């Protein structure tokens, strides 16, 4: 598994968790999805060329 795939998998997991929390707990958890995608802080690799 490359770093690109690991980052995409982790971001997808955090987005799904955020959406599940927004559905079951409180709508403000949708912000977690936006935060996870925006603040990962990993430089783009070969998947983003």
TrEMBL record:
<dbReference type="GO" id="GO:0016740">
    <property type="term" value="F:transferase activity"/>
</dbReference>
<keyword id="KW-0808">Transferase</keyword>
<protein>
    <submittedName>
        <fullName>Sulfurtransferase</fullName>
    </submittedName>
</protein>
